[in-house]
C-alpha cells in the first residue's frame, strides 16, 4: 500500500518486513493479580509483531514472518495480524514432526495500578519458533522485494537457531541494500546482560537504525570504555550531554549507523509515567518533548515508539518531528488495551506531537 507523505506530499511505497515470535497474552481483568483471578482476557502480541501491526495501521506495506503451530492458537494469532492488514504469507505453520513440543508461546500480564507495577510471567520455553529448523528458509527469497527489515534483541534470546537466523537475515539484507533496524529490547528473564551485549556486538555492523541501547551501551571491548560518564553504565535518566556522548561513541565505532534513538521513562507510579526521547540523526542529537500521562496498558509502549520513528523516517519527517512523532505514538499506545498500537489516524499522533507546550512535572 502506498502512503501519502503528510510533509512533502511524496507518495512512499516502502515495503517492511520483520521476524519474531508472536505469543498468546493472558491478562486478569480489572487489574487483578493472577493468584486471585478466575478468568483471563485473551490477546496476542510480541515486539516484532506489534511493530508490524502498528505500521500496517499507519498505511505501511507491512509483513510479519514467524513460526507458529498449525493449531487453533497459532491460526488465531495470525488471524489477528491479518485483520490489521499485516501480510502473513511467509509465516510457517508447523507440524508436530517439525516442532515436537508444538506450542505457541504464552505470557501472563498482571497490569499494574497506582504504586503496584505491572508484572510479566513468561511461558514460552520450547515454543514452535525455538524448535524450527531455519535452514529450511531461503533467506534471499524471503527478503526479495522489501526495503526495510526490523529485528529485535528478544528473538535471538529464545534459541541459538533464532540467533543464527537473525544474523543470516541481517547479512542478506545488507547485501540487498535494505534498511536494517534493530531494537535491543533486553529481557533479563530470557538471557544475561553479558550474553545480550555479546550478541549485539555481532549485530552492530549491519544496523542502520538502532533502538533500545540501554543495555547495550557497551560493546564487547573493555579497552574502549575507560573514559566518559557512561563507562560504568548508561543512566536510565541521562542528561543531554551524556546521551550525546554515548551516541557519538557509537557512531565513531560503527559509522554504518544512520540513526540511534532511545526513549526515557520516568515512572511516578504504576499508572502515571512521563516519557521523552533522544535521537541521533545526521550528526546531531535531538531531545523530544516530555509528556506525562495516565496508563491504561503499558505493554508495547517501546514498540510503538520504534514503529513511530520508523514511520517518520520512511516518510521524510524532519529530525525533531521524527523523535516527537515517535514519542507521541508511544504515549497514545499507553491509552489502548493490548500489545499493539492500533492507531490508524496519523493526524491524532501529529496533533499530540505538535502541542505547543511541554507537559513536564
Keywords:
alpha/beta, 361 residues, nine-stranded mixed β-sheet, four-stranded mixed β-sheet, 30% helix, disordered C terminus
Quick overview of this protein structure:
With 361 residues, the protein is an alpha/beta fold. The chain contains 10 helices and 17 strands.
Poorly predicted regions are: 1-11, 225-232, 357-361
Quote the beta fraction: 15-25%
Count of DSSP-assigned helices: 10
Secondary-structure element pattern, one letter each: EEEEEHEEHEEEHHEHEHEHEEEEHHH
**Whole-number radius of gyration?**
19 Å
User: Mind describing the biggest β-sheet?
Assistant: 9 strands, mixed
What distance lies between the first and last C-alpha atoms, to the nearest angstrom?
41 Å
Structural class: alpha/beta
Query: What's the pLDDT, averaged over the residues?
Result: 88
| Gross geometry | globular
Strand segment count: 17
The proportion of residues forming helix, as a percent range, comes to 25-40%
Describe the structure.
With 361 residues, the chain is of the alpha/beta class. Helix content is 30%, strand content 23%. It is built from 10 helices and 17 strands. Strands 3, 6, 11, 12, 13, 14, 15, 16 and 17 form a 9-stranded mixed β-sheet that branches. Helix 6 links the parallel strand 12 and strand 13 (209-211). The protein starts with a strand and ends in an 8-residue tail after the last helix. 43% of the residues are buried.
Amino acid at each position: 500500500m502506498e502512503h501519502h507523505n503528510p510533509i512533502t506530499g511524496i507518495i512512499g511505497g516502502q515495503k517492511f518486513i520483520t521476524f519474531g515470535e508472536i505469543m498468546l497474552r493472558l491478562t486478569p481483568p480489572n487489574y487483578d493479580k493472577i493468584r486471585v483471578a478466575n478468568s483471563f482476557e485473551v490477546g496476542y502480541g510480541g515486539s516484532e509483531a506489534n511493530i508490524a501491526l502498528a505500521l500496517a495501521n499507519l498505511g505501511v506495506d507491512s509483513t510479519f514472518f514467524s513460526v507458529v503451530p498449525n493449531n487453533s492458537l497459532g491460526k488465531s494469532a495470525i488471524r489477528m495480524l491479518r485483520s490489521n492488514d499485516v501480510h502473513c504469507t511467509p509465516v510457517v505453520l508447523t507440524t508436530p514432526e517439525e516442532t515436537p513440543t508444538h506450542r505457541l508461546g504464552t505470557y501472563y500480564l498482571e497490569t499494574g495500578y497506582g504504586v503496584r507495577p505491572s508484572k510479566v510471567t513468561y511461558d514460552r520455553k520450547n515454543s514452535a519458533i525455538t524448535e524450527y529448523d531455519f535452514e529450511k528458509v531461503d533467506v534471499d527469497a524471503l527478503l526479495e522485494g522489501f526495503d526495510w527489515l526490523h529485528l529485535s534483541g528478544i528473538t535471538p534470546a529464545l534459541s541459538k537457531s533464532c540467533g543464527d537466523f537473525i544474523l543470516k537475515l541481517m547479512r542478506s539484507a545488507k547485501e540487498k541494500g535494505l534498511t536494517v533496524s534493530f531494537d535491543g529490547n533486553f529481557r533479563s528473564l530470557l538471557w544475561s546482560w553479558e550474553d545480550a551485549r555479546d550478541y549485539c556486538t555481532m549485530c552492530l555492523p549491519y544496523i542502520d537504525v538502532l533502538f533500545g541501547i540501554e543495555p547495550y551501551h557497551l560493546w564487547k571491548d573493555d579497552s574502549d570504555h575507560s573514559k566518559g560518564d557512561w563507562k560504568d553504565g548508561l543512566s536510565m535518566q541521562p542528561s543531554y550531554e551524556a546521551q550525546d556522548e554515548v551516541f557519538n561513541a557509537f557512531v565513531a565505532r560503527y559509522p554504518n549507523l544512520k540513526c540511534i534513538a532511545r526513549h526515557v521513562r520516568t515512572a511516578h507510579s504504576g499508572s502515571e509515567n512521563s516519557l521523552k526521547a533522544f535521537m541521533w540523526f545526521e550528526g546531531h542529537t535531538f531531545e523530544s518533548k516530555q509528556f506525562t500521562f495516565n496508563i491504561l496498558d503499558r505493554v508495547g509502549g517501546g514498540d510503538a515508539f520504534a514503529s513511530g520513528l520508523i514511520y517518520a523516517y520512511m516518510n521524510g519527517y524532519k529530525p525533531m518531528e521524527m523523535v516527537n512523532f515517535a514519542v507521541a505514538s508511544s504515549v497514545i499506545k499507553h491509552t489502548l488495551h493490548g500489545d499493539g498500537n492500533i492507531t490508524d489516524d496519523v493526524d491524532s499522533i501529529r496533533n499530540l506531537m505538535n502541542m505547543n507546550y511541554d507537559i513536564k512535572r
